[in-house]
Amino acid sequence: MNNSNNNDLIKIEEDAIKIQEQDLRDTIISIDNETTKSSLVIGFAGVLFGIAFNYIDKLSFLQIYPFILLLLSSVGIALWNISAKQVNIHTDLHRIFVTKEPNNWGKYLNYKHLHLQESYSSAKSLLYKKALFTKISFILLILSSLSLLLSKLGVL
């Protein structure tokens, strides 16, 4: 009976770990999506600069300065976002199966749970940072577009 309870507990722990692993994978996918969004910011910034290049000689330095400053800030933040560290979630499972005995499986599951908890925490933190910087880079890109438009219209 004691062995049956232990097996049930191990099964519950295994299922919980599978859920944790899926949550971590979903978070990693979200991090990758933020990186893709930052790549789009850089692409749009290139197109915007190409459009602005036709008007640079018609605008004064004071008119073009806000545009360039905002555009470069947007690109800089997007580049940081792209190069931000990734979260490592891989575990060398084959080594664990070879070196661990079945009676140590419960200890391994506890270790795995703690490792996943740390990875998930750092992944969530990175995701929140990347999402914030993605928003900031988009806002700066929009502001640079508006400054160019206002300069072209003669408002600035």
Overview of the structural elements:
The protein is mainly α and 156 residues long. It has one domain. It has helices at residues 2-53, 61-83, 93-99, 105-153. Helix 1 (2-53) packs antiparallel against helix 2 and helix 2 (61-83) packs antiparallel against helix 4 (105-153). The radius of gyration is 25 Å and the shape is rod-shaped.
Q: What features would you highlight for this structure?
A:
single chain, 156 residues, mainly alpha, 4 helices, 84% helix, 0% strand
Low-confidence stretches: 93-97
Order of helices and strands: HHHH
**Number of contiguous helices:** 4
Strand content: under 5%
List the helices and strands and how they pair.
Elements: H1 2-53, H2 61-83, H3 93-99, H4 105-153
Helix pairs in contact: 1-2, 1-4, 2-4
Short structural summary:
The protein is built from four helices and no strands.
